[in-house]
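Recall from the previous chapter that SMILES is a line notation for molecules. Here it describes zinc ion.
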Amino acid sequence: MKTNLPTLFVPDLQPPALNVVIVFMPLITFTENGIYCPQADVYIDPWRPVPKALITHAHADHSRYGMGKYLAHHHSIPVMQHRLGEIVAEGTGYGEKVQINGVDISFHPAGHIPGSSQIRLAYKGEVWVISGDYKLADDGFCAPFETVKCNHFVTESTFGLPVYKWKSQVETMQEINAWWADNKTNGLTTVILGYALGKAQRILANLDTSIGEIFLHGAIYNSNLALEKAGYVFPETERITPETDKKRYKGSIVIAPPSAMGSPWIRQFKPYQVGTASGWMALRGPRRRRNADRGFILSDHADWAELNTAVKSTGAEHIYVTHGYTSVYSKWLKSQGLDAHIVQTEFEGELSEIGESATKETDPE
Ligand SMILES: [Zn+2]
Ligand SMILES: [Zn+2]
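With both inputs in hand, we obtain:
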């Protein structure tokens, strides 16, 4: 392991205290600003402005405006800069050790989106892992989830109900490609909806490019430009502009964020079929499909089985359940003999990622 002292995060030098009062403080506390490590004086994914923030990943609800300094995985930085503008930010690599006031801090793959990290903090034998958002299945696109042993594990619970069970990505992508090919045969344009950071790129990376041309909504095109700066490579695509020859849309596929549904923008693809790709599609019915013609089960979060595998494999005795089905999931963990707690956070789960919440995608439409 390489040890790095990030220049932005060097603690201020303080004179040695003469009278030391030892008070027991857990390494991590949950505050109104966010998840806090007092010993290192850093917050993890804070939702209010604080001086120093460690960021698990670049989604809008985990990576917010107004922090003095940001530390995140290298691959998150270009996307954060694209979304947040001028920020003071430093990047770190997976497994690199950063030491702040005696606390060992390292980032480990969370398998959620490019750059997404679980953040490990260790001090005097106490180890915490804050997992942000994660999934266990390897999508062949972002670094796959790594199990990190710890005493205290902070987990999301976006899909923390047994009804959420994902198909394999291969199966879902075969369905999407077959649907696109059918639409092409019928002289239709195919529009597939997936949020602009993560889902859209995962779909793009797995399209059968022999079927036809691929067009991108501006928000997705811009996310891709940021990811290309981080070294990601995509199949050939074209950004949709008012000048694009509309005749070219016939038989091609358009990738757009969920907010495109029902907008005037989508009408230019008529006649078209629209599909949506999300974990929510595991629940049947048109309401869930948000009036799309087709729903495909594809999530960047862990399903029920994956959540349980992740929790168990960390070996943690204490589990803190954040955004999602917090109450159901923490009860379940307690019934399994674990010390489980609900933690109130301002993370929004997949709602923010599909653009349903107040803190919407900040990308231009
Ligand atoms: Zn996320
Ligand atoms: Zn989240």
